[in-house]
TrEMBL record:
This is Tc1-like transposase DDE domain-containing protein. Residues 83-234 form the Tc1-like transposase DDE domain. Residues 5-74 form the Transposase Tc1-like domain. It comes from Salmo trutta. It comes from the Eukaryota. Pfam families: DDE_3, HTH_Tnp_Tc3_2. The lineage of its organism: Eukaryota, Metazoa, Chordata, Craniata, Vertebrata. GO terms for biological process: DNA integration; DNA transposition. GO terms for molecular function: DNA binding. InterPro entries: RNaseH_sf (IPR036397), Tc1-like_DDE_dom (IPR038717), Transposase_5 (IPR052338), Transposase_Tc1-like (IPR002492).
């Protein structure tokens, strides 16, 4: 079997399927099965994985992301334990989005050839705001209507501070949110300052650097298994499953944050 040909094809095009390789080899005069192809790739150190979804980046984004990673690469785990991570997400009624699989080596998840750029889109869904720390999940809030700066500050007042207290964040905790205009508006910055909340400086276009993305994925998998029937059902199930996410998962995400920066 032409192992060199297989490896060259997969190296250049990681999204190549086993069926594609079977057809390529057949054209070249070699008959093999998809199972044989899979076994060969695994022997060569590759495995089939879901392609990681990452933002479509400009050069300026790449620069500030690398700057963030380099500045924080040697931070101790205790620094990340103090962070209360937050984000908004879209929860679709009819399950999680389809995934694409790629053949890659163990530490190559974020190689551009092994990822899928994502863009936001519409559909039957609800929007949620949530937060978590190494101590567990905080409150989950259903965003009703179009969120503006005033609504965002209300969400923080009603959910962020109670979450920090419930999670026993103590003094000196740090708030993480991205650079959405509602988050960086002058009024929001003044509100945060008035509440004496320290904010983590965050690089634009970096959802993959926020470990809450892993929790959103976990939540979507859990919710999809329960098959909500309507949007009210979806909200109820989301809140139930969010509260069921084990604290151990939150601890591990924070403990492994240096690996995320190293991958970047």
């Amino acid at each position: 079997m032409r192992v060199a040909m297989i490896m060259r094809t997969v190296r250049n095009q990681p999204r190549t399927t086993r069926e594609d390789l079977v057809n390529d080899l057949k054209t070249a005069g070699t008959i093999v099965t998809k199972k044989t192809i899979g076994n060969t790739l695994r022997r060569e150190g590759l495995k089939s994985c879901s392609a990681c979804k990452v933002p479509l980046l400009k050069k300026a984004h790449i620069h500030v992301r690398l700057k963030f990673a380099n500045e924080h690469l040697n931070d101790s785990e205790d620094n990340w334990v103090k962070v209360l991570w937050s984000d908004e997400t879209k929860m679709e009624l009819f399950g999680i989005n389809s995934t694409r699989r790629v053949w890659r080596r163990r530490n190559a998840a974020y190689d551009p050839k092994n990822t899928i750029p994502t863009v936001k889109h519409g559909g039957g869904y609800i929007m949620l705001w949530g937060c978590f720390s190494a101590k567990g999940t905080g409150q989950l809030y259903h965003i009703k209507g179009t969120m503006d700066g005033a609504m965002y500050r209300q969400i923080l007042g009603e959910n962020l501070l109670p979450s920090a207290r419930a999670l026993k964040m103590g003094r000196g905790w740090v708030f993480q949110h991205d650079n959405d205009p509602k988050h960086t508006a002058k009024a929001t910055k003044e509100w945060v300052k008035k509440k004496h909340i320290k904010v983590l400086e965050w690089p634009s276009q970096s959802p993959d650097l926020n470990p809450i993305e892993n929790l959103w994925r976990e939540l979507k998998v859990r919710v999809a298994k329960r098959q909500p029937r309507n949007l009210n059902d979806l909200e109820k199930i989301c809140k139930e499953e969010w509260d069921k996410i084990p604290p151990e998962m939150c601890v591990n995400l924070v403990a492994n944050y240096k690996k995320r920066l190293t991958s970047l």
